[in-house]
Design goal:
heterodimer, A: alpha/beta, 13 strands, B: alpha/beta, seven-stranded mixed beta sheet, six-stranded mixed beta sheet, 12 helices, binds thiamine diphosphate, binds iron/sulfur cluster
């Protein structure tokens, strides 16, 4: 009987027994990304283990490395919250001097990337270190108990952006670090969601195989912080792309004129001009994404806030050069 | 053959780094130590030093990159001062806790506000509880020598702690003095190549570094840093002895100067020790029984040596360029603590002076001496004295 080759390596770098919550989206990403990275290392350097991981403080760090245990089967280092990229720069430099073939994989949450760690990230990218930075974006500081970050979307409840008589929840649009990263004109920048494992694998491999730095911003559902059903972790992340909330794109060498927009799925109609995506007509309203999450519950009492969010999403797409239609739910 | 060159302490520090052959250097410029990374850049650019020089975007990233590189298993070095060291503060604890033998050259400078680029010791003194070893140089030769010694102590398996070597802003960083540059071969023999046994990021033997520790383990981790500091006392003696054998220059944790039969001993650090020694010479001519002691190693604090000195005098005058608010100075605190349980102990009087680059003159030292003499005569004097303070502008 012919044995089918598994779609991704069976090697594990993220071992079972870590302490993440049930249904944790970032935990899925840790597993997928390390596997994909390993495959890329095998293809690039002929050694599947030719990498080390640098981690920022945050959920994924504290759930995976509680002394005397570790969930990591690869060389791994955590230094602090804001400096994963700087620590990775040091590792890269040391490896260069040691003549060690390989690449550094960096993980940081949205807080450790979009806020406090943005400077170190910029430094790492600008200096062209041989590292892939993966921002696992669960859209808040989860490790300290769900506070807003600059990557928290408009309208979301967090413990520091509570909705109230004078508040709609988070009142600023989301910061897109992928675009900031792309402005460094590095070889590869992408966005993804854990809703599509194959997409994550493809992009991580692509990122890992370029020479120099790459950055990927991955939406990763956090059932604890989003107040969402555990079993819907993947579905919610997929809906983010299918409703237009989360644009999927790639930017190579900072070429904003040739942003590669990916079809979002969910029946969306994509219009191209000369091969370039210029418009997307989404079929699923963003409400389908929002309603599965307790963090947006209060918005349904204020439909104008949802409309505002819709406008912000359109504006983001416009930056990417795409005109989008975001439907309202049928009454 | 060792060569003698006239150079600033910053250059001496860069030379020390060159001789120690670190594989990774990450640094960010700050007055007064800017010349250190500049000079190292030159060495790297000319192929005289085979290292990766990471031109980081801040001191926080400089020390973070050093931690990454050191954890990956290579010798690392950086230089900074003042605000730069303060920006590193968070990561200094991490470097010590992770037991990474990084060495920093510190051009000792005052901290803001008000902004001031001149010398005092507040920057490195403020980092005394991070677990780092601390050395203070009296002159440019010592800046070079102590950096070499610091690497050797830091990398000793009984220690494995990071170390900083301080030298005074401008008084040393920007002043040229003859400095003997040791032979590369001799330094290679003295230091050897750094071979990590506990910290490496090697895919063929993966380890996890920088974990989270629950209350069940945290205290023990801190204790090992304590233990390593204790171990460093002996290791430093050994390294200094070896240094003397190899390079002919003698160092000790505390250097005593004309302390035999002294009633008053002036204890200080850094370049001020040079001034104080001259002052002692001048007074000895006049028959005043006064001596000096220079603290070369501030962490671990040389308690046994202080006790020995204390047994010789009736008054210890502490001269320091730092403040621990409401207490006095850090050195005063350390010396007092060292003597607290002694049956017989001298009086310990603190003198805070020379902050923010104010010159310390013989007139200032006369004031120190006059207060010390009063104490010697049994008169009551203030425990903490600000010397050279311009009360008229307060
Ligand atoms: C300098 C500093 N400030 C604050 C903290 C506290 N802290 C640790 S993790 C964290 C939030 C992490 O958020 P994020 O990066 O989004 O990752 P997540 O926890 O969501 O996985 C905060 C605020 C810290 N460790 N260091
Ligand atoms: S709080 Fe969220 S991100 Fe953190 S472990 Fe739990 S599910 Fe994962």
């Amino acid at each position: 009987m012919a044995v089918r080759k598994p779609p991704i390596t069976t090697r594990e770098y993220w071992a079972p027994g870590h302490a993440a919550c049930a249904g944790c989206g970032p935990a899925i990403l840790m597993k997928l990304a390390t596997k994909a990275f390993s495959e890329a290392m095998e293809e690039k350097y002929g050694d599947p283990n030719a990498f080390a991981i640098a981690h920022a403080t945050g959920c994924m760090e504290v759930v995976s490395a509680v002394f005397p245990y570790t969930a990591w089967k690869a060389p791994w280092i955590h230094v602090a919250f804001e400096n994963a990229a700087a620590a990775a720069s040091g590792v890269d430099a040391a490896w260069k001097k040691l003549g060690r073939k390989g690449k550094i994989l960096v993980f940081g949450g949205d807080g450790g990337t979009a806020d406090i760690g943005l400077q170190a990230l910029s430094g790492m990218l600008e200096r062209r270190h041989n590292a892939v930075y993966i921002m696992y974006d669960n859209e808040a500081y989860m490790n300290t108990g769900i506070q807003r970050s600059s990557s928290t979307p408009y309208g979301a409840w967090t413990t520091t952006s509570p909705p109230g008589k004078y508040s709609i929840g988070e009142d600023k649009p989301k910061k897109w670090v992928a675009l900031i990263a792309a402005a460094h004109q590095i070889p590869y920048v992408a966005t993804a969601t854990i809703g599509n494992a194959f997409d994550v694998i493809t992009k991580v491999k692509k990122a890992a195989k370029v020479d120099g730095p790459a950055f990927i911003q991955v939406l990763a559902t956090c059932p604890t912080g989003w107040k969402s059903p555990l079993e819907k972790t993947v579905e919610i992340a997929r809906l983010a792309a299918e409703t237009g909330v989360w644009p999927l794109f790639e930017i190579e060498n900072g070429d904003f004129h040739n942003i590669k927009i990916q079809p979002p799925g969910g029946g969306a109609k994509v219009k191209r001009e000369g091969g370039r995506v210029v418009a997307i007509e989404f079929k699923k309203p963003i409400e389908e994404y929002l309603k599965l999450q307790g963090r947006f519950k209060h918005l349904f009492r204020k439909p104008e806030a949802i409309d505002q969010l819709r406008e912000q999403i359109k504006a983001m797409w416009k930056v990417l050069g795409v005109e989008v239609t975001l439907p309202k739910p049928e009454e | 053959m060792p060569v003698r060159k006239v150079m600033k302490a910053n250059e001496a520090a860069a030379w020390a780094a060159k001789l120690a052959k670190p594989k990774v250097i990450a640094a960010f410029p700050i007055t007064p130590s800017t010349l250190v990374p500049e000079k190292i850049s030159e060495f790297v650019a000319n192929g005289e030093l085979d290292a990766e020089f990471i031109k980081v975007e801040s001191e926080h990233s400089a020390i973070s990159a050093c931690v990454g590189a050191s954890a990956a298993g290579v010798r690392t070095f950086t230089a900074t001062a003042s605000q730069g060291l303060a920006l590193m503060h968070e990561v200094l604890f991490i470097a010590a806790g992770m037991r990474l033998p990084i060495v920093i050259a510190v051009g000792n400078r005052a901290l803001s506000a008000p902004i001031n680029i001149w010398n005092d010791w507040q920057d490195s003194i403020s980092e005394r509880d991070t677990g780092w070893l601390q050395f203070y140089a009296e002159n440019n030769q010592e800046a070079l020598d102590l950096i070499l010694a610091a690497f050797k102590v830091a990398e000793d398996e009984r220690v494995l702690l990071p170390a900083m070597v301080g030298f005074d802003a401008f008084i040393l960083t920007h002043t040229v003095e003859p400095v003997e540059i040791p032979d590369q071969e001799a330094v290679d023999e003295f230091l050897g190549e750094y071979e990590p046994k506990h910290a490496y990021l090697d895919p063929s033997r993966p380890i996890t570094q920088g974990t989270l520790a629950f209350p069940a383990h945290y205290m023990e981790a801190r204790y090992t840093v304590w233990e390593a500091n204790e171990n460093a006392r002996k290791v430093i003696d050994e390294v200094f002895a070896e240094f003397e054998k190899k390079f002919g220059r003698k160092y000790s944790k505390i250097e005593e100067y004309r302390t035999d039969d002294a009633d008053i001993i002036l204890i200080t650090m850094g370049s001020l020790a040079g001034t104080v020694k001259e002052y002692v010479d001048a007074l000895r001519e006049k028959g005043v029984k006064v001596g000096a002691a220079k603290i070369t190693v501030y962490r671990p604090f040389p308690m046994d040596e202080i006790r020995e000195i204390a047994g010789k005098a009736k008054v210890l005058a502490i001269l320091e360029k730092d403040v621990t608010f409401s207490v006095g100075g850090a050195l005063f605190q350390d010396v007092s603590r060292t003597l607290i349980n002694e049956e017989e102990k001298p009086k310990v009087i603190d003198f805070i002076l020379g902050l923010g680059g104010r010159d310390v003159t013989f007139e200032n030292l006369d004031e120190v001496l006059s207060i010390s003499k009063k104490a010697l005569d049994g008169e009551k004097v203030d425990e903490v004295n600000w010397i050279g303070l311009r009360k008229e502008i307060l």
